[in-house]
Amino acid sequence: MASSHGFIGHGRWLYEELLRVSLFVRFPRGRGAGTTTAAPVSIVDLLPLIAKELGLRLPPAVEGVLPGDRRVVLAEIFRNGHSLKHYGPRFDRDLVAFIRWPWKLIVSDRGGRELFRLDADPLESRNLVGEEIEEQLRQELERARAALSAPTERTAPTDIQRSTEERLRGLGYIE
Question: Which residue, of 98, 111, 156, 165, has the greatest Cβ tally within 10 A?
Answer without folding.
Answer: 98
